[in-house]
Every structure is written in structure tokens, then in C-alpha cells.
Amino acid sequence: ICSINSEKERTLAMIKPDGLLGNYTDDIKKIIIGSGFNIVRELTVQLDEENVTLFYAEHSAKGFFPNLIRYMTSGPVLAMVLEKRNAISDWRALIGPTDAKQAKISHPNSIRAMCGSSSERNCVHGSDSQQSAAREISFFFGDIPPETLKHDEL
Ligand code: RTP
Ligand code: MG
């Protein structure tokens, strides 16, 4: 029924290199599923400098950008399309604040508190708006049809 589907929203989640290397993938996926998200697509990929520059274009003039490129190319990432009602804001709430050190104090149950270690190495990404989500999903996955497809049915 169309009205049920149209209430759902999609966001782009990513487990960053420190999350994958630290073996947090299974724990993070348990939190994702337990929080009511459907994992519509997933892809493990090694990003290069060009990819990161495009993905994080909004930060290209920031002082931390060279470090961000080094961090994000230091190993593979796992990109996922998550779907549920209010997926964008609910995923941002689950991951917690950007600075993982701060997260350990202010949001101790957040994902970044669990597996991040600093303001840079914060183990996960989440889209910050509907516009970002659409751009970031197509960055990794191109156009996805509106009906839900579980990754293991592809
Ligand atoms: P993300 O886009 O990865 O979900 O993170 P965010 O919205 O919470 O934070 P954002 O401001 O978009 O920053 C993107 C990523 O850049 C790194 N960063 N390093 N050294 C620093 O001060 C610094 N600030 C940001 C982090 O990896 C951050 O997630
Ligand atoms: Mg951001």
C-alpha cells in the first residue's frame, strides 16, 4: 500500500575505517536492526582521495580536511541505506555528537561513544538532511527504486 511506504525515509549510514577495523560492524548492525531500521542496501568499499573529496565536499576548505582524507582512506568503509520513519534524524540521534570523546560523556549510549575515539575518529557517519541523504545514497548506490529491497534479495 503506497501510503505506508511514503511515510518511510531513507538515510545513508557509513561505518568508517576505525569502526570496521575495530570489529564493531556486528554490534552496530544489531543496534540498527533493534532500532527498527531496514538495511535496504550495503556495500563495503575502499574510498580514495577523490571519492572522499566528493563525498565531504562541504568540508573541503576546512583545516581538518587533509586529516579527514587520510582517515577516510585508511581502510574500507561499509555504506548502508537505512529505511524507517524519520530515518535521517533517528540515525543521527543514535550515532551521537561528532566528537566521540564528548559523546562518551554526554551521550554514553550512543554509537560514537561505543566505538569512536576523537572529534575526527568517530567511527560512523549519518546524513544530516533529506538533501544530503539523497546525494549520499546516489554517491554509493545510484538510483534505488522506491520499493524496499533487502540487500540479500538482490
Ligand atoms: P559525518 O558527516 O561524518 O556524519 O559527521 P558529522 O556530520 O557529525 O560532522 P561534520 O561536521 O560533517 O564533519 C565530518 C567529519 O569530519 C571529521 N572532523 N574532524 N578534527 C576535527 O576537528 C574534525 N571535525 C570534523 C569527523 O570525522 C567528522 O565526522
Ligand atoms: Mg556531516
Features:
17% strand; four-stranded antiparallel sheet; binds magnesium ion; single chain; Alpha-Beta Plaits; globular; binds ribavirin triphosphate; alpha+beta
Tell me what you see in this structure.
The protein has 154 residues and is α+β, with helices and mostly antiparallel strands. The protein has a domain at 2-91 and 127-138: Nucleoside diphosphate kinase-like domain (Alpha-Beta Plaits). It is 44% helix and 17% strand. It contains nine helices and four strands; from the N terminus they run αβααβααβαααβα. The protein has helices at 2-6, 17-21, 25-34, 49-55, 65-72, 87-95, 100-106, 111-115, 130-141, and strands spanning 9-15, 38-45, 77-84, 124-126. It has a four-stranded antiparallel β-sheet, sandwiched between helices. The protein is globular and about 40 Å long. Ribavirin triphosphate (RTP) binds at residues 59, 64, 67-68, 98, 119-120, 122, 125-126, 128.
